[in-house]
Amino acid sequence: MMSDQQQFNSQLCGFLARATTPFHAVTEMVKQLQDAGFLQLMEDESWQLQAGGRYFLTRNGSSLVAFGIGAEAGPAEGLRMVGAHTDSPCLMVKPTPEKTSQGYFQLGVEVYGGALLNPWFDRDLSLAGRVSFQCKNAELRTALIDFRDAIATIPSLAIHLDREANKNRSINPQKDIPPVLCQMSEGEKGNFRELLHQRLLHEHPDCDVEQVLDYELCFYDTQAAAIVGLRGDFIASARLDNLLSCHTGLHALQEWDGAASVLLVCNDHEEVGSLSAAGAQGPLLESVLKRIAGDDQAAYAALTERSMMISADNAHGIHPNYADRHDENHGPVLNKGPVIKINANQRYASNAETTGLYRMLAAQEGVPVQSFVVRTDMACGSTIGPITAGGVGVRTLDIGVPTFGMHSIRELAGTADAHNLSKVLRRFYNYRGSLSAR
């Protein structure tokens, strides 16, 4: 029989396999929420929220907000909120992508986010995302597709043709990374939209597609998530940043006891700055909070003042081969606990009040806690935490699971950390006390 941790990681691996794009991630989360009794709301309709009710909504098909109205403590008493993001660095197909060189059919791609490009070479790649199309009755529709099979690769240049490759090889994203899909016959021309037309008919035989209009598609690594290491210490997968946190927050929400009011937000576009209708800099969360609070401006002010957000986004584990890239007192180790992220310049939104509450809850669960501060002579990344704190005015904590190879096509985390984080988030959702220090 599997332990709770093994079962959690098995579910995480399954989620990562199905959530190949932000659209597919939200689709999977919607299925799990519906199975857990959450009701879908539409933003353009009126809401009738009930104490004890469980609800969710989506925006753009790539962002999601799920929340529960506490049966004992309503939203005016404060929301226990968890935030994550659905997107990951990747290669997205350009609008007119067809390329033919030396008889090979390739697709032009654009780098999305701060991708670590070297690991994309010599991988088995597939393609997934959203396609818009016109039906035969002239109706506009969209559908998700996922080729699943390895349909492309980006071959490396042999070292014989670049003897300095191991010393100094830079990547030109315009020239060096267009994936190779197949070989072409003489005179044959590639038609990517026709390829998508056929894929739509294959995955959605009743879609009645007349013409493919446009798409948002990205390449991804087909290698499945796996438990690796001599003693099974690690989980290796694409998109751990930040689908691991989406799964962890969702898992904790499904174990909500119904007493206090809770919320999970998973935003798209974090990797490119969050400024979009579906991103954390957009109006999604604020709009939902105002509708939960009602028309009374004082009620909304009370809600935000009494609430707290835990922004969950992976942290940098100290690499055994590059330990000097960390502050000597702040090098998080995999499987030694989730990491509180702190930055004096507010690149992370943690403060002594929010970190104190997290440490208290973690101690109650017997979960170890680590902290991360970037080296003072290095630039610091950021998360949706400061964006949410600054936009909504809610006290916020930045937390994350320590990870190797962040923004690589295949990242590495510890098998204990995500499960431990889920236990603390569950306790946070079920916490009956005040979210502010007295």
UniProtKB/TrEMBL annotation:
UniProt-listed InterPro entries: Peptidase_M18 (IPR001948), Peptidase_M18_dom2 (IPR023358)
Keywords, in A-Z order: Aminopeptidase, Hydrolase, Metal-binding, Metalloprotease, Protease, Zinc
UniProt GO molecular function: aminopeptidase activity
Record flagged with keyword Heme: no
Names of the cofactor(s): Zn(2+)
Its EC number(s): 3.4.11.-
Enzyme class name: hydrolase
Top-level lineage group: Bacteria
Family label: Belongs to the peptidase M18 family.
Name of this protein: M18 family aminopeptidase
